[in-house]
Design brief:
Number of strands: 4
Shape: globular
Order of helices and strands: HEHEHHHHEHEH
Number of helices: 8
Helix content: 40-55%
Radius of gyration: 18 Å
Strand content: 5-15%
Oligomer: single chain
Structural class: alpha/beta
Largest sheet: 4 strands, parallel
Distance between the termini: 38 Å
Length: 217
Amino acid sequence: GETVIYDPGAPQYSGQDLVADAVGVLDVLRVDRANVVGISMGGGIVQHLALDHADRVASLTLISTSPGGPGLPPMSDELRARFAQPVAEPDWGDRQAVVDYIVEDVREYAGSVTVDEEEMRALAGRIVDRTASIESTMTNHGILEGGDPLRPRLCELTTPTLVLHGTEDPLFPYGHAEALAAEIPGAKLVPLEGVGHEMPPRPVWDQVVAAILDHTG
């Protein structure tokens, strides 16, 4: 495939580019409207998608994300300290070191719901093995430019919206989910007890799958 080299002096890839990518995927697959799920940054991207391309989104599910803007609870003190003194990056060519790095990163964001470490290590290994540039995958969040303020527009959303959010999210504490549900007309909020800022772990799969199937059915 094509090799893309990031040039720090060039215009950065923006959230709006990722929204356009999502629309492009629907076009290529010839899907008129889709049930869309977004987690964390993906949740912000699909909020833009639902606002700017409402005709393409049949339903919206937002997981571990935020409306942005003032008046929201800050990240945990522990996570703030981690950002102030980040863990050194691994040797990206050392598979085991990268797996260890990914697992430790997951721990920093996880809640009190138990995560199976053996299962997480196996998943991290598959991610490393299938990724052309694991370094880019793990660091691209930091080079993405933000878009226009989104929160003032949430009242315009007409797409049926489900908000799933961990009660122990250290990056976007639960108040972010409450703000989303309050500002998106008709949104349904489902708390995930003991879950942090993470893909919903196995112990809450039954709850998450049932909620999404009910929402999209």
